[in-house]
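step: validate -> pass
step: tokenize input -> pass
step: predict -> running
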Amino acid sequence: MDEYAKLIEEAGADRAGLRKLRDLTNPVVLEVLNYWYAQRGTRRMPTPADIDPVAIARHMPHLMMLQVDYEPFNLTYRLIGEKVANSHGVNFKGQSVLAINERKPKLGSMLFELFKAVAELRRPVGVGGEMEFAGGGYMDFEAAYMPLSLDGERTDRIFTVTVYREVPVAERFKNEMTTI
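step: predict -> pass
step: emit ->
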């Protein structure tokens, strides 16, 4: 098992993973992703200033903005929507992504590696699946993580949209019984 696969399992996210952008289906995720593409235009990535909160205000509870720092590489939460914070049981605004490890061991490390990959790839990444969240319990989710750049080359921010749905206990057990 490779190191990242082990980290995913230890974080309790083995029923979640990468999704092809074309396979994303949640209307909120798709609307924000299409907004990112429209703001990007012909450039590799839009700038942080291209993201107008008024244009996407109705989706603010589902949004996050992370700051990407280099030398040393670090990721800091700058904006966390209410539904995202509630699912994790805490608002990590102003804290490093790795701070999540204090709340749910290994999850911060896994997210750090995922966001780092988005920064390095300089393109949107889709994610989804099911997992237990510290604040929201067992949920399924779908997300898009999108890079932003001040100079058009280096990722300076990561803009995300995540939609969560609580999975009722009966549905969860039914899903688990089909995998046995």
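step: describe -> The chain has a mean pLDDT of 86.
step: cleanup -> pass
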